[in-house]
Amino acid sequence: MSYMMSKRSLFAASALLAVTFAAPAAHAQSRAETLRYVTGATVNTLDPNIPGSTREAFALSMSSYDRLVSFGRKQLNGKWVFDLDTITGELAESFQVSPDGLKITFKLRPDAKFQDGSPVTAEDVKWSLDRCVTAPILGKAQLLTGSLTSADQFKVIDPLTIEVTLPKPDKLALPNLATVYPIIINSKLAKAHATAEDPWALNWTKENAAGSGAYIVETFKPGEQVIAKRNDAWNRGTADKPAAFKRLIIQSVPEPATRANLVERGDADLVIDLQASDVQALEGKGKLKVISTPQYNAVTFISMNNTIPPFDNVNVRRAIAYALPYDDMFKAALFGRGAPLYGATWADGKPPSGGYPIPQPIKLDLEKAKAYLKEAGLPEGFATTFSFNVGQAATAEPMAALVKEQLGKIGITVDIQKLPDAQMSTAINEKKLPFFTEGIVAWLPSTDYFYRNFYTGKQRWNYSSTDNAELEKVAQAARFEADKAKYEEEGKELNAIHFDQMFQIPIWQAAQDAVMQPTVDGYVYQFTRQVDYRNLSRK
Amino acid sequence: MGTIGATLARAGRRFVSSLPALFGVLVFTFLLMRVLPGDPAVFFASGPNAGQEEIEVIRRQLGLDKPLPNQLAIYLADVARGNLGRSMMTGQAVAKDLKERLPASLELTLTALLIALVSAVPLGVVAALRPGSLLDHGVRLFCSLGVCVPTFVSGLLLIYVFYYLLGFAPDPTGRIDIFTTLPPSRTGFLLIDFLLAGDLDGWSAAARQLMLPAFTMALFVIAPLARITRASMLVSLGSDFIRTARSVGLSWWRIVVTYALRNAVLPVITIAGIVFSTMLGANVLVEKVFSWPGVASYALDALLVSDYAPVQGFVLLMATIFVIVNLLVDLLYGIADPRATVA
What we know:
The complex is a heterodimer of chains A (539) and B (343).
Chain A: H1 2-22, E1 34-39, H2 55-64, E2 69-76, E3 79-89, E4 92-97, E5 103-108, H3 122-134, H4 138-144, E6 154-158, E7 161-165, H5 173-176, H6 187-192, H7 202-207, E8 215-221, E9 225-230, E10 247-252, H8 256-264, E11 270-271, H9 276-285, E12 289-294, E13 298-304, H10 314-323, H11 326-334, E14 338-340, H12 366-375, E15 383-389, H13 393-408, E16 413-419, H14 421-429, E17 435-441, H15 447-455, H16 469-479, H17 484-501, E18 504-516, E19 520-521, E20 537-538
Parallel strand pairs in A: 1-10, 1-11, 15-16
Antiparallel strand pairs in A: 2-3, 4-5, 5-7, 6-7, 8-9, 9-10, 11-18, 12-18, 13-17, 13-18, 14-18, 19-20
Helix pairs in contact in A: 10-12, 11-13, 15-16, 16-17
Chain B: H1 2-17, H2 19-35, H3 40-44, H4 52-62, H5 68-80, H6 94-129, H7 134-148, H8 151-165, H9 190-197, H10 200-237, H11 240-247, H12 252-282, H13 284-289, H14 295-304, H15 308-336, H16 339-342
């Protein structure tokens, strides 16, 4: 009986095989007007403010919602990147900063409409900004960095005018309004879904987009795909036009090799998160367009916890800095794709600029390293662990192996520790790791922002647990410094302290490799390190 | 009718008696997740500028601020009401996620199992008929290859050949070509839903998409099935009743299929049940390689980021399926060998 069953199914299976491989590749409609973007990550919420939002969720919300203002773009070594210093209107037709820098007045576009057809009013803007600084959401901590902390700061002047007041002139106030979080929400729609426990309708916005953005979300399957159609009424693009692609498919494809195959076969239009080796191979074949931009608002570090012995000794940190095999790591981890932050020459030992990050004047020098170890009273070396998270294994694993090998030469025994992502985050937050690699990103990459967020305080982003009174003083002063020349001086001072104390070792800025069909045009490297779908078109 | 009724009653009793085991699994997973290092709140508060305050908010949302016994009590009460909690990773209710993803995994696993059985049983029988022959060694070689090549390797290899080089197969992402309109979801099994909707083009698109991952998985499990078939066929062929059947001059075909195979099939059913249960959980690599939206890859992603609720929900689901599959195996026993029902 069983055999009879098998025989029948054998027939069915072979028939099925015949049908499946003979069928034509159907369903290719509207391919040219669709952007198919494949990514290893997933969109997990439609509201970027929800704690736990992924970067893909940020990217989608850039297109499904509008903000008051947006960043312009500029060219950096021939590649288009976002420009922090040019702020243009998005929902705001114009904006004005008062001479004392304490008031910003936004005039809204009179023709702007939400995706349900209702007009965007100053009331909506106020509700959305109030929400951003009041609700327990991600926007709160971000807007804080631009002195936006309370609902009292937002005032409706008339249906198309809103005024933002600041306690002090803060040059990061306006750029903050262009970041991912301060989205302008259709407040009537959201309020209709608010409840007593959830006055800001977070549960609803998580699964429903109520914005005025360039794309209207049609299907949202977390972990699988998002399909969106163009909002034809949206005119906030260049030359007041709607976005170029009529449809947008954002698909999660976890396997990097498959993503590479898809884009090479022409089934996907654009992918950004490939393995460095695949990008190199695809670039070599020359059939696809590869735009490789160093992530100029991100830094990869080798961090040392400055409170855990022996890394609390500055000479140990210096010894490590001179013992790392920089060039080998750069080649093994990134295939040389990115911008190195080592091997610079600083004339008379002073930082050449007040920017951040700048290449450090360090290179592999084992003699120097040994001398510093001796000075630290550890001529025989010591034993430690070097940690990285599984999510970064592709680059961190070869790096860790090289670190272990190289440090072994000066007597430092390194035990490599590969931690699951959540475990790594926890250990970093609890300041338990002595020696590890991590990366940081700043949406608003100004020198003082980097130093304040990543080198002061007890929060997790202070990876090296730096506690340096002078650095903190200068960084705080630089925050509100209006004089550009003085700001530059303060930046140099910070860079000098950093190099002298070697809290942690910046090693490089990895490249963001965007691999796309030659017909895809308009890619700009964004502060989110994601694609802004609104920029793209097909030639 | 009487036998069927008795069988069902027995199945019902068996299911009820496995409830304590399911409860144990529930509590054990709950505790295990909390003992493992890694704090989900810290991980999910990893946006730029997320500080201690954000971590606390997430901890409250997840109920992790309460003492462990309270958390367990709340969790058990929720599960009793069919609420498996919320996934931080997808932002959806775990029950909803699992419900959407389970059919994808089942469809893939069942197809793979079918392909495996259809190839393994004849292979095993052939090998048993000529033990020690070149054919037998050939089968052994094939099985060894299947089982020793990891699924992600064979998966990537199949993709490379059939999609990348030859272009026969559709792009290996998900259950259906992205431009195909989905049928109304009735069972969640795309092959069935397309048939119900009368959409043959859609059906063939879904079947094309299913082929590579199903073959990848089938390759991996052909070995145990073929080996068991071979072994029990050998025993069966050497037993007295076969000698008797031979001596009375029954046809060769009848002896092999009706007498030998029918007797040899019991262990195959047992192994098939176990293989199915393991495949369902272990096909995570296949699901990853083919971007298949199934439960296994979902659980693995959740585990990496210490997202408690989905992992707990997944383990409970797997335990339940294991219990059900075992019951089914018992029922099939009864059909293959009526004596089993009485026992």
